[in-house]
Amino acid sequence: MTIQTTTSPNGERMVTMTADEYQDLIDARDAEATIRAVADGTMPVLSGADVDAYLAAPTPLAFWRRHKGLTQVDLARAAEISQPYLAQLESGQREAMVSVYSRLAERLNLRVDDLLG
């Protein structure tokens, strides 16, 4: 890694590096944050069987609801939607507005991105 240091006109110390070197630093920071989140239990970790179930599920929403041990009725009630509508979302027959996915993600303790394929 080739890093050059300079001083800005106002006296602030500055570092210059290539874009690839900068991206490597960002990736290392993100990897460390992931390791910490897994270690402290704030990031879910899936077993091999869980991964197989995720891949077999019709949608991520269907997998996560089952994985969290909720029935469609329970999750639908918590997210203030109907069970038939949730069933259509889980099967991929319908899509919802972001606000619905946001409520579902909140009830499942996930990010909205986790529910979208």
How does this model look, in words?
This protein is mainly alpha-helical and 117 residues long. The protein contains seven helices and two strands. It has a two-stranded antiparallel ribbon. β1 and β2 (13-16) form a beta hairpin. The longest helix has 21 residues, at 19-39.
Question: What's the topology here?
Answer:
Elements: E1 4-7, E2 13-16, H1 19-39, H2 48-56, H3 60-67, H4 72-79, H5 83-91, H6 98-108, H7 112-115
Antiparallel strand pairs: 1-2
Helix pairs in contact: 2-3, 3-5, 4-5, 4-6
Number of DSSP strand runs: 2
Let me know the average pLDDT. 93
How many DSSP H or I helices?
7
Span between N and C termini? 37 Å
Structural class: mainly alpha
H/E element order: EEHHHHHHH
Q: Report the sheet-strand fraction.
A: 5-15%
Q: Reading side by side through the largest sheet, how are the strands ordered?
A: 1-2
Biggest beta-sheet profile: 2 strands, antiparallel
* Rg result: 21 Å
Shape: elongated
Q: Estimate the helix proportion, in percent.
A: 55-70%
Unreliable sequence segments: none
What are the salient characteristics of this protein?
two-stranded antiparallel sheet, about 120 residues, 7 helices, mainly alpha
Overview in brief:
The protein is mainly alpha-helical. The protein has helices at residues 19-39, 48-56, 60-67, 72-79, 83-91, 98-108, 112-115, and strands at residues 4-7, 13-16.
